[in-house]
Amino acid sequence: MTWESKDRLTATERSSEPVLDNEMKKAIGALCTRYPTRRAVLLPALHMVQDKFNCISESAILELAELLDIPPAEVLSTASFYDSYSLSQRGKHLIAVCQSLSCELCGCEQILAALQEKLGIEPGQTTQDGKFTLITAQCLGACDYAPAILIDQTLYKNISLERLDDIIQEVEN
Amino acid sequence: MAFEPILTRNRNHPEVHQLDAYVKRGGYASLKKAVSMAPEEIVAMVKASGLRGRGGAGFSTGIKWSFMLKASTDPIYMVVNFDESEPGTFKDRYLAEIDPHQILEGIIVGSYTTRASVAYIFIRGEYPAQARILQETIDQAYKAGYLGKNILNSGYNLECVLHRGAGAYICGEETSLLEALEGKRGWPRIKPPFPAVQGAFGKSTIINNVETLCCVPHIINNGPEWFVSIGTVHSPGPKLYGISGQVNKPGIVELPLGIPCRELIEKYAGGVRNGRRCKAVIPGGVSMGVLTEKELDCALDFEGPPQYGCLGLGTGGVIVMDDTTCMVRVLRNIVRFFANESCGQCTPCREGSVWMLKILNRILDGQGTLKDLDLLIELTDTQGALVGKTICGLADGTSWAVKTFINKFRLEFEAQLLKKYMVSKYGPHQKRGNQSLCLSIHGKGNLYI
Predict the structure, then answer these.
(1) Could you tell me the fold of the domain covering B14-228?
(2) Do residues A7 and A68 share a domain?
(3) Cystine design at B78: which of B68, B72, B111, B320 (Cβ 3.0–4.6 Å)?
């Protein structure tokens, strides 16, 4: 839930190796020219970090705060609000099962149950090998293709139980 | 005479993703015309067309733009609301997939009219593929001189930036969207000041829905009289209806505003799946309330759904439910959505939606009592902007869904409570065919639940 309070970030040791490499810093710097404030780059920057590391780590928060010239608490405030960002490590692939009304009417609950059984995890958890994280999505905006799941950046439409195995296989390779 | 699609006229021409092909099919003609006109003229034209915002509120676009003529901040921003996250809504996604340059043309014309110098397209995070399409479109437009400095030698400059959201329904609320654009949590702002006075980064900002902007080039090309001739008196123009749920042909259909709901389902969505009967329809996204089968003659325009107790047309995302659907479960799904998406800023919405969800879960678990239904109705009056308890209208969506579902399907809710009670007392009932249980209540006939 977006409003749920998250664990507090207490002062931590920064990792000795910087999280953001020069390439990312350059990309973030380039974005800064397109907005009137540096802070506005926070969402795109968090997207970059999340896409690369599947996680917004504490070190990343501290470094982003420095780079964008805002307090770390504000970076945490923003990062913890949005569902796309995760403060805990997500797996290599993110499977989002749509739970919207249209998808529920077309049987998303069976899809979710089958995925839970197949991967051996509950929504919100990551498989032990770190390959998959399963989450539920509120609506993927793919109601005409219900039931739909979004894996990383690919939308899988009109999912049936028979197709699930093939899809997981396809993503793994 | 059959209606010729306007906004989706290029749906069978995938080549229009390329700028040249789009121009060949008449694209950017309205922009050329627009930059030769004064912003006041365009505003008058849009006002005369009667175009109303397609994002849900249905506010007159011409009037909204006329506020911007008085804006004096430097710069002025255009923000495009591409954060469609309401369950049942996928029209803007479709527009980006079939005709992205049309969106961009609408944005450029809108920005020129409101004298904006930067346009931010706020696209929801769940649309990565559509974001890629739009970015490519923007790049093409820069190369061809439709964006950037001195557009078409008019002396007008416009920068366009694509900004990806990060998965929050609330960001569809315009001030929340501005907060997200500024890099903050998506918490709606208290209004006034309205965005036209103090919007993004403290400057005057115009915020428009994607479909609204797509209408503008056609109004400029064909004139306001042509636009008024489509649809109804109070709701002119074409509309994209997104049909989903238990129908044979889910998808987008473009029709003049005011089509009766029944016709839309029977004629354009192939009827209800498996030859079943329709039981209920959500007319425009889950926050708008529900129509029963008897109310399907409701015209889907801005005036139609309120006559049947719904909040409005919303986004035109129609969700169809067949006669096997359990309304308690449907309402639970809707309330779960709002409980998840409440931003947490106002207590009535944050707590109220979760209470409602708990009550509905209780009913479905067989722990509910008849009093729970009254309690749910009572809760609807304690939250929402309409009753003056919250900053934004998110909680109104919850209230409206709960109110209309319980009022229109009260018998079924009562039956559900009774069924659970009977099952706990006498054991499970014999199944009959694919209907789980049949009850006769208050002598009002059989109910399948």
Answers:
(1) Rossmann fold (3.40.50)
(2) yes
(3) B111
Other Cβ atoms less than 10 A from the Cβ of A172: the count is: 10
- The minimal CB distance from B126 to the residues A4, A43, A141 is found for A141
Interface of A with B in 78-137 (CB under 8 A): 78, 81-85, 96, 99-102, 104-106, 137
pLDDT of residue B420: 72
Residue B135's nearest CA partner among B10, B28, B17, B15 is B17
Q: How many CB pairs under 8 A join A and B?
A: 161
Per CATH, the architecture of B327-448 is what?
Answer: Up-down Bundle (1.20)
**Nearest CB neighbour to A144, from listed B169, B186, B250:** B250
Per-residue pLDDT at B425? 66
Dihedral angle, C-alpha B403, B405, B409, B410, nearest 10 °: -40
Inter-chain CB proximity B252 and A36 less than 8 Å: no
A143 to B181: CB separation less than 8 angstroms, yes or no: no
Chain position carrying tokens 């014999």: B430
The CATH number that applies at residue A152 is 3.40.30.10
B277 touches chain A (CB under 8 A): no
Which of B137, B180, B176, B183 is CA-nearest to residue B160?
B137
A54 lies in the same domain as A133: no
Q: Which residues of B301-338 are buried (b: 16+ CB within 10 A; e: fewer)?
A: bbbbbeebebbbbbbbbbbbbbeebbbbbbbbbbbbbb
- Nearest chain B residue to A81 by CA distance is B185
ipTM of the complex: 0.92
Looking at the structure, tell me whether residues A113 and A31 fall in a common domain. no
pLDDT of residue B74: 87
Q: Say which of B90, B165, B340 has its CB closest to residue A144.
A: B90
The string of DSSP letters for B354-411 reads HHHHHHHHHHHTT---THHHHHHHHHHTTSSTTTT-SSSSHHHHHHHHHHHHHHHSHH
- Give B201's contacts in chain A (Cβ within 8 Å): 36-37, 40
A24 contacts chain B (CB < 8 A): no
Question: Among the three residues A70, A89, A108, which one is the final residue of a domain in this structure?
Answer: A89
- Out of A3, A39, A105, the one facing B321 most closely (by C-beta) is A105
pLDDT tens digit sequence for B380-393:
999 888 888 999 99
Pairwise CB contact (< 8 Å): B182 & A39: yes
Q: Give the CA count within 13 Å in the CB-facing half-sphere of B301.
A: 19
> Is the separation of the CB atoms in B359 and B372 below 8 Å?
yes
B71 touches chain A (CB under 8 A): no
Residue A20's φ and ψ, nearest 5 degrees, are -85, 120
- Concatenating the DSSP letter of every residue in B20-84 gives HHHHHTTTTHHHHHHTTS-HHHHHHHHHHHT-B-TTSS--BHHHHHHHHTT---SS-EEEEEE--
Give the residue-averaged pLDDT of B93-104. Answer: 96
Average of per-residue pLDDT values in chain B: 91
Instruction: Report the first-to-last Cα separation within chain A, whole angstroms.
Output: 32
As given in the structure block, the two tokens for residue B347 are 């207590």
CA angle (B373, A103, A134) in 5-degree steps:
105
Is the domain of A104 the same as that of A155? yes
